[in-house]
Amino acid sequence: MSSLAGRLCIDVQHATDRIVAVTTNLQRPLEHISRLLTGREPEPALRCIALLFSICSNAQQVAAVNALEQALGWQTPLEVVRARQQLTELELIRESLLRLAHGWELPIAADQLKRLVSLCQHGISALQPMAGLQALADDPQRGELNTALQQLAEYGQQLQDIGSCGWLMPRLAHWSGITLGGAVPEALEPTRIEPLLAALREGRVTAEIDGQPRMTGPATASEITGSAGRQIEQRVMALLHGACRSMAALQTLPPVACMAQPVLEAGEGMALVKTARGWLLQRIRVERGRIAEWQIIAPTDWNFHADGLLRRQLRGIRVPVEQAETLVHELVLSMDPCLDFEVKIDHA
Fold it and tell me: Please, are residues 148 and 122 in contact by the beta-carbon 8 Å criterion?
């Protein structure tokens, strides 16, 4: 993301070989972004989205345009809906590959990674015009795009094979004796967000449903209990398998509604879009042709809630003080935040 992205700080209190408390401080200027967009006409506001976000920028644009079209009462052609879905899936693949390669040392040759990312970027560039208001389904680059999608599908099976080679185990072996605990939050269910919509209308932009945190994306692969090594492996493999599924399905994606559409008020639109890190939500309200409200809840807001997965699983576990910072760092990395983060250990 841009310099407006914010920062994630994890403060850990450690005493007598045990983590006694975890504080998750997620600093995100979403209110500032909302104020920046409020008062603008829809098209200039939509153009701002591409400038404000660098990570998952296409997902942000697609969520925004989908919500805006709902708010304006416009019908979107099914071909455009499909193209936008392909656009966000291509971004999901690219973001997943980059995280797997640079964060988890996915055993893939540099030239092959470069080729995969290039194919994703080629498709993204061809489909980007579909993220505009009143986009037309006519696409003169469809032939070249289909070739890129086909090549990505062929690479998908190769990545599946890499996933079965156990490349993570040497790195995670020293966490096999550390057991995580705590009741994990429920997974975010896109078809059950009506309580969240009610809260957003009241101005409560919080990553909660009925007062409880949720988790989304690879974090949902977590077991209720289990070793830290096992859970990190599950999340990383969930990221890899998700990318492989997207690569295999790029050419056959049906236009789908990702949520049971709640009853919206006049001038209101809401959209959920799948990203590598989980569900991205935007709600927009338009009055007299201008933006009256623009609310965003990103996957990182769900996954790093103050009473979320990380705090619940780490509090009370036994881990030597010299290993605590590395363990927390790898757990955070396995949940794939969309911004920079730091871990601080307070040796009580």
Answer: yes
